[in-house]
Each structure stands twice: as structure tokens, then as C-alpha cells.
Amino acid sequence: MIRLQASVIEGIRAADTPAKLHRYLQNAIELEHSTIPPYLTALLSLRPGRNRRIGELLRRIIVQEMLHMCIAANILIAIGGKPAINTPGFVPTYPGPLPMQIGNGLVVGIEAFSMPLLKNVFMAIEQPEDEVPVHVLKAAREAEPEYATIGQFYDAIQAQIRALGATIFVTPTAPPQVVAPHWFAPDKLFVITDPDSACRAIDIIKIEGEGTSTSPFQSPHDPAHFYQFGAIVNGREVITMPGEPGKPPSYAYAGAPIPFDPDGVWPLRANCRIADFKRGTDARTRIEQFAYNYSALLNALHLAFNGESDRFDAAIGLMYDLRVLAVALMQTVADPQTGETVGPSYELVHTQGGMQS
Amino acid sequence: MSYLDAPRLHFTGWFQADVSTINNDVRFFQNASFVPEYQQLDQNGSWNPEGTGIFRLLDCKVTGGALAGRSFVDPSQDPVIGLLVENADRRAPGKLVDLDPQQQMVSEIWGLQVRLLDAERRELLRGEYRPGPFCNLWRRQQTGVARDQQLAANYQSVLQDTAWADELDSPLLRALREASDDGCLSIAFNVYGYGRDATIPRYTMGHVVGSIGPYRRGEPRHFVAGRQMTADTTASLMVPAGGLYNLQGRFSARTGQLTLDFGNTFPIQDANSGLLDMGQVLVGVLRGNPQAVLATVDASRVGLVGEVPYRDPDWYTQTAGVQDFDLHERPDIAALLQDNPLALLSPLPDSSAYKVLLQESVDGLYLRADQFVFRLEPGEQATVELHATRFGQPLAGAGVGLVPTAGLMGGSGGGATISPPTRPAAAIPDIGTPAGVFTFPSSGSTDAAGRLDVPIALSAQGPGRPRGYIAGQLYGVAYRLDRLPPGYLFNPLNYVSVLAFDAKAVPAAPTWYDDIQPLFAQYGNLYPIMGRYVVDLNDYAAVCTRVKALQLAFSLPRSDPNHMPVTRDLGAGDRDTILAWLSTPGADGLPRLGRPSLPVGPAAATGTAAASPPPDLGLLPEQGGGKTAFVLQYEQRRRSAAESGDAS
Q1: Under DSSP, is residue B389 helix (H, G, I), strand (E, B) or coil?
Q2: Secondary structure of residue B91 in the 3-state scheme
Q3: Distance CA A224, CA A216 (A)
Q4: Which of A314, A328, A354 sits opposite B58 (nearest CB)?
Q5: Is B93 in the A-facing interface, judged by CB distances under 8 Å?
Q6: Range of lowest pLDDT (B273-282, B509-518, B623-632)
Q7: Does B549 touch chain A (CB under 8 A)?
Q8: Are residues B149 and B294 in the same domain?
Q9: For residue B475, which of A21, B296, B388, B498 is within the disulfide window of CB 3.0 to 4.6 Å?
Q10: Quick one: chain B helix, strand, coil %, rounded to 5?
Q11: Domain extent at residue B194
Q12: Helix, strand or coil for residue A56?
């Protein structure tokens, strides 16, 4: 189960002004963002026309992580804060821990899609506090008081928002919050105005990621991230099993097959950094271009959440461009000996080059 | 004022033009005969089938500058030196776009943002490159590796909507900010040494050197209405007789400065070699105004201006080839410049004469359209801004004639054969038909400023899809001054290109089968980067999963870098049909599928070309198709016309 330092929870509980709560919502933005580079890399590493269903499922999860990031940013704005999305340190160093040292030593890297990656990393990131048994009963857990869960992190934020009350909400906010009905349904991304709307929004983050304590589904036919990864690992969709009357339903990875073709994945070298590649090579120019484009995406999001809401469409455009830029990148041989190809880098950069020595 | 004035800065580095290449052959627009083999790398010369269309600068730095008679090459002289020249950092990069598969000789840059950054990556200047085409395409590179694009060209436009940092350490930048009108700057750059071999690092990339200077309201944006030297390309369109290629310049009688842009004038040996040593090259002004281009001239008939220092190793990268000649203490030469042509000269051994490598346009006369690429919707009108000059001064009251032309348009853009052959055979459409729907006046006269605004118009009914499998039609307009000396040399690339879109009524309830699939299938065929990786445009179900993204991309203005289609060749009728389809779902909440209609063959292309395949130009695979094919096809037409005595 993924954990974070209990001191974070204590800090949230001790936040007696909205300003003191700001850093934890900024942490939430960073946490939600931090899963996107590894998940996106796994998605982009799928070869065209191969592993289509897995690609669809990964894409859905990534879109929801983007939503969660937006929700956290709106809550921060709602209580008088300003999201910082393109500052140094916003993107964690991969491989490494997620923000707030989350994960109890879990190291998250930038790697091609693989079953071990899903099982050991992605499922660890998304593991619920109360995992609903799917197929196999979970083992009882020991209490670990020095650590808290992501669920508890969000629980504590919800509790503290309620404790501080409606007065911490700013009207009108500066900058305005972002709602993007074209991209996110209005019941998912909405203007936060009071403790109720803030808590409702945080519930979305919790449930989409971890599900509820009674069901792996966040909505009908859409399992929470943990169970979605579990379905891919187990090769079958999650379904509700026919149960006995009067008893709670049970769940199993027993639905339609989710086939995995190991050859349908580009053999990316893990955790590529720009500096790993010599100038004057196509590997270098392409990885710089990818990182620059990702940085531009974060710049566009930063501006969107700091007063220029209409930049959100440009951010979406940049997201699609990453898809396209990954094509040449991931076919570029990084090491002729192993056949490994170049993986993406999510370093924040301000320039792009790579030809000039 | 322009980039030829001071204050100005020069930059150098690399560019990427990741153009897609399947659309280099018009026959691949015929959906009925399209097969997946056409999407393979290097099939039929398609050297970048998964191109994204991206145009971007990389590794570009400011390397030189000029301010108030001084030139800078080191940051100690002015902190502008060393600034980084970057692209947009909060939106998608620019795109490079052909007008049409049958007009690939005016590729325009769209959606490019240019920024200057200091060493701390602080943004000092930001501006939007006003879309405009390259010009002055020639075979600049003498040798190369396989598939090198040995043709080079230059771009000139303005950066508009500029935004400056409040604090500017650089006196040059402060002066530049003060000197410009309307928030615009003049920008010009030369592109060369472009690689098309997928196995080399230079693949889709080449060198760029350029300049940024002030822009003055009312002046042309895409060329300088100054002194124009025109190469003799009578024998070979891409190989100038004198070895040096077109240049433009200006002379200021007030300051005594003659400034010439040699940025696209000197050949290079190979992609990375720098300028080819042609021996000493001198700038002179002829003592007299011959009504023809000279081969040689005696030294006594020339006032020497100075030597072009192109053999200095850093000259080209530090100046982008823009060279000032100070004549304020040489009134005799300045006086000669008023009504005599400039010439680039090479000393002849054992002789008092010079070889004339390049000469100013005969009698100093020059006429050019500013923007010369247009897209017209049915019922739409646009204005071609013609500027006439004589020895760099506005030519008032000059008669101008205009006639239809094919220019370098038409043809296939590919080789004589396609592998595998198109079945049914795709004929190469004629262009310029029907004639009556595209109109412009046949004559006019320049005003006191030497300018003539020519209205061009497309009738409300549009061309009516005369090319069958490909929408729209191309028209060209040739223009010339009425009174020209017999030996006058034209730049054959100076004509107006128009893509005329078809009229199309938007159906009330468009369906996939009837209205959308033919459009999307063609796009998916030609740009597999989209279909393979983003959304399979041949697949209704897949398209239905990306409705919102498609709505956004098809709604963006053409100037937006994320505009779809990237080729910017979709007419408003088709665009509105797509948007209507995306936004008017059927009972199931999805865009309407409709029913497949009975299969019918593609509409036949009109014209005589349908009967005959394109001429065999003997294109080697490494020559690719595209621009090379257009040049060869054009030259063959020119030869045929000469043989038949047809002067048109």
C-alpha cells in the first residue's frame, strides 16, 4: 500500500489559515501530475495498431489524472492560492520517489509498457486503502502508524477545509478557475466555491484513483485505476460476479480478454535523459524536442491556471503533439547493441537544439 | 525599412522541416487507387511518409548585429550577441505547408513564433511570423550525400504582434524596438543543406542564417522594394548562368549606405561546407545603363564599390550575408547608383575587364507581388499588392499587364511511374480550368508610390471540382511591366499562385458515408502519422472517440499551429460539413453513420493529361519527387514551348 510521511497529515491538520493549506494543495497538483509521465510513456510505447485495448485503458487513466490535477489546481485557486505548474522541481526526477516521498520507497521511472511495470509500480501508486477483493482475497495488513495513505492525505485536506469553513473561499478568485466543458464533464471539473464543492471534487480524485471501499468501479463499466491496471495485468476486464441474494457483490478479473502482445511495444531504454545523448545525433534532437514540447505543455497549463484560461486548448494541442513526436523518438535506436530505442524525457527545458556540438 | 536597415541582428543555427511526403504526388489523392504501399518509407521517392509538418528553429543564436554604422560580433560590443532564437514555448510549433500537391514551389510557414532569450532564458522579444512562402529556389548545393535536397531558398516576412521585455540591456534591441512600426519587425532567412536521408542525423533538418530588422508601415513584407539583381536562369531554371543567385539590396542616399543581401547568393559545396570559394567577387556600379545583361565589362566602365568578404570564415554566419558598403565619402559612386545598375564582378586574368556574375535588373526595372500565395473561397476576393521600382525608387505611372499562367504549377510532382501502379489509373489533373471563374484585371497602372493593388476574385460557384479526385483548383497570375527592354531577365518564380476552393453546400445532416469518409480517408492516406498514432481516420468508430479533439482542431483558425488539416488545403464548405457532422449527432448520440452508397468510380480528372502519363524525367529515387520533379517538368514544358514557337 502506498504511503506518505505522517508528518504531511499533521501539517494539514495544523494548517489554521488557508495560506498554510496552499502548499498541500500544490503538493496535490504535483502528486497528480507526477503519475502522468510514467503512464504516458507506457501508452506512447505501444506500437501503432498493437495492444489497442491496453492503450485505450491507459489513455482513459491519463485523462483522469489530468482531471485530478486540474481539480487540485482549482481548489488551490478557490482558497486564494496560485498553482505553480512550470517551476523548477515541479516535475519529479525519474527514476525516483513521487512527491512528498510517497510510496514508502517506491521508485517510479520512465519506462516502456510492461507487466512488471504495471504490477510493481503503477498498481502500487494507485493501491487503495481498502482494496476490494477482486478474484483473490487480500491479506490482512499490519498497522503502520508512521505513514499515511494518499486517501488519508485527501481525507485530511477535506477535513481541514471543512474545519476552516466557507470563509477561506475567495470570491471572485484571482486567477479564475478553469472549467473546460469541452474536455471534462461539468460534473467532474467545476468551479469550487465552498467546502461542499471542494470535498465533492476531492471525492472524484479519490474514487477515480482507488475506487470505493465497496466496489472497484468508480462508475459503471469504469474501474478505478488500481483495478484497471489489475485487469491489464490479469489479462481480463473486471466484472461483477453473479452473487447470492442478500450478499454484497463480488468481483473478478473474468471479463473480456485484454490481450497483450509483448512485441507490440517499442523497446525503450528506461529513464532517458537529454544529457545521455551526444549532440549531432537524431536521438539528441528528438529527445530535446520532446522535452521542449512537454515543457511547453506545462507552460500552457501554468498560464491557464494563472489567469489565461483560454490557453487550455493549446495545452490539449500540445498533448496531441507529444503523441506524434513520440513516433520518431521511439523508433530512434539508442543502442545498436541492444536494439533499445530512445525513450522520452520530461525535463523542464527552455531551449531545443541538439545538432550543434 | 527592413532587415536591410540598421538596427538589425543576424542569427544562425539549424531548422527542422518535418514535412510529410506522400502528398508530393497528386495521384495519391485518388482514394480509390490508394494502397498501403504508398505509405512506406522511400516508396515512390516518399522520403518522410510519417512527417508531422513541423517547422522549427533549433540551436539558433544571434551571431551578429548592426547599429548606427557599427557592427557587432561579440557580446562585449552589444549583449544582443549570443541571445538564443527560439520557438513558441506555450503552444505547438510552426508548420511548413505546400499550397497544393500541384504547387509545391511556394511552401509557406504557418503558426511559427520566434522568440529571443537571454542566457537566463528570460524572454526579451516574441513575435508571430506572418505566413509567407519561400522564394528564390535554386540549386545552391553542388554535391551531397544521397537524397540531399540540394535546392535552397529564402524566406522573408514580418514578425507581428511583437512583445518586448520592459528591460532591455541591449542598445541594439532598444533601438530596434523604437525603429519599428505597428509592432512589426522584418525578418528574412536562408535555408540550405537540408537532409532527406532517414539514416543521417540531418534528416529533415538543414542550416538557417537570417536577419531581423525594423519594419516600416506600408512597405512590402515579403521582399524589399530596393535594388534587385536577377540571375540568368534561361538555360536552367535552378542553375544561374553566372554561378551566383538573385539578391536584393537597398541604397540610402541620405546615409550613403549600400546594403546588399548575399544570404542566398553564393553556392555551397556540400550541406555543411560553408560558402564555395568563387575567387574574388567585387561589387560595382556600371558607368552607364545598358539595356541588356552584360557578360563582361571593362574596368573603365565600372565604379567599384568594394569586395564581398564572403571568404572570411565567419562572415556568413555573423552577417547572414547582409553586407553594408559605406559610400558617404564617395559621392561619385553614390551618384552613379541613382540610375545605373549594380553588378557583381569577377576579375578576368590578364585583362582589364571583369566577368559579370550577376547584374541588377535591366534598366533597374522590377515588379513584384508582395504576398503571392492565396487561398480563395467561392465568392471571395483578395488583393495582390504589386510594387514597381526602378533602381530602387518607386516607379509611378507604370503600365502593368497581367495574364493567366501555369508557372511552375501542374504536373504530378512525382515520377513517370508509380509503384504499384494506380488502379484505376489516376490521371494527372489539368490546372487553371475552368478559366472563367477566377478573374483579375488584365492591366493597371502604378500609383505615385509605385504600387498597384490588383483585385483577384473567385466566382460564387467556384471551380466546380474540375480535378476530380482532388478538391479545388489552382490558378496562376503572371504580371509584368508593359515597357521592358528586350533583354530583360525575369525571375520565373515571381508569379501569383491561387488555390481556389470548391463551392459546397453543407448538408443539413451530414453522414459518415456520404460526406465525411471521403475526406477523412484521403487525409488518413496521405498523413499516416495521424491515422496510425492519433485516430484512424478511416474508421468511423475510432473517429467517434475523438469528436471533441476533432471539433477543436477543425475550428482553429488557419494561423493556429494546431489547425487541421495541417496542409491548410480544406475549403470552408468541406470544413463546415465536417464541423456540422461532428456537432449534430444522431439518435445514438454519435455523429451520423448513414449508409454506404453503391460504389462508384472516382470522378475523372478533366483535361488532356488524363490521356497520357507524365513525361519520364529520369528521376532517380534519391532525387525524390516533389520540387525536383516540378522543376524538371517545368523545364520540359519550357523546352516544348520553345520548340513549338509558343512564347506563352
Answers
A1: strand
A2: coil
A3: 6
A4: A354
A5: yes
A6: B623-632
A7: yes
A8: yes
A9: B498
A10: 20, 30, 50
A11: 8-363
A12: helix
**Domains of chain A, start order:** 3-264 (1.20.1260.10), 274-356 (no CATH)
Reported pTM: 0.95
Looking up cell 444522431 gives B586
- B118 and B15 belong to one structural domain: yes
CA distance B159 to chain A (A): 20
Q: Which of B280-284, B564-568, B608-612 shows the lowest per-residue confidence on average (mean pLDDT)?
A: B608-612
Using CA atoms, how far apart are residues A75 and A73, in angstroms rounded to an integer? 5
Mean pLDDT of A28-36: 96
Torsion-angle region of B450 (φ positive above 0: left; ψ -120 to 50: alpha; else: beta)? left
Is pLDDT above 80 for B622? no
For residue B639, what pLDDT band results from cuts at 50, 70 and 90?
Answer: confident
Which residue matches cell numbers 512589426? B184
- Can you tell me whether residue B392 is helix, strand or coil? coil
Q: Is B119 on the interface with A (CB under 8 A)?
A: no
Taking Cα atoms as reference points, which of B147, B610, B623 lies closest to residue B413?
B623
Name the residue of chain A whose CA is nearest to B121's CA: A350
Distance (Å, whole) CA A225 – CA A214:
15
Using CA atoms, how far apart are residues B147 and B190, in angstroms rounded to an integer?
Answer: 20
Counting one residue from A and one from B, how many pairs have CB atoms under 8 Å apart? 101
Say how many residues make up chain A.
357
Q: Residue B534 corresponds to which amino acid? A: V
Burial of A6 (0-12, 13-18, 19+ CB in 10 A): middle
The closest alpha carbon to B337, from B406, B249, B261, belongs to: B249
Quick one: DSSP state of residue A96? Answer: B
Determine the residue type at B122.
R
Q: Which three cell numbers stand for residue B12?
A: 544562425
Give A120's DSSP letter.
Answer: I
DSSP for B397-444 reads T-EEEEEE--TT--S-SS-S--SSPPSS--PPPPSS-SSTTEE--SEE
ipTM: 0.94
Beta bridge partners of A240: A251
Do residues B93 and A322 touch, judged by C-beta distance below 8 A? no
Lowest model confidence (mean pLDDT) among A58-72, B87-101, B182-196, B623-637: B623-637
**CB atoms inside a 10 Å sphere around CB B397:** 10
Judge if B546 and B623 occupy the same domain: no
Burial of A321 (0-12, 13-18, 19+ CB in 10 A): buried
Residues B330 and B479 in one domain: no
Q: How many Å apart are CA B487 and CA B231, to the nearest integer?
A: 13
Distance between CA atoms of residues B559 and B557, nearest Å? 5
Lookup: cell for A241 = 460476479
In what helix (H) or strand (E) does residue A303 lie, and over which residues does it extend? helix A282-304
Query: B89 and B236 share a domain?
Result: yes
Q: What is the CATH number of the domain that holds B415?
A: 2.60.40.10
Q: How many domains does chain B have?
A: 3
Q: Could you tell me if B296 and B315 lie in one domain? A: yes
- Determine the Cα–Cα distance for residues A346 and A290; give it in Å rounded to an integer: 8
Whether B614 is covered by a domain: the verdict is no
Q: What is the pLDDT of residues B540-586, one digit of tens each?
A: 999 999 999 999 999 999 999 999 999 999 999 999 999 999 999 99
Q: Is B16 on the interface with A (CB under 8 A)?
A: yes
Query: For residues B322 and B72, what is the distance between their CA atoms, to the nearest angstrom?
Result: 13
B interface test, pick of A324, A330, A348, A349 with most B CB neighbours within 10 Å: A324
Query: Within an 8 Å CB–CB cutoff, is residue B542 touching chain A?
Result: no
Q: How far is B449 from chain A (nearest CA, A)?
A: 42
Nearest by CB to A183, from B89, B548, B561: name it.
Answer: B548
Phi and psi (nearest 5°) for B471? -75, 160
Digit-coded pLDDT (tens) for B321-360 = 999 999 999 999 999 999 999 999 999 999 999 999 999 9
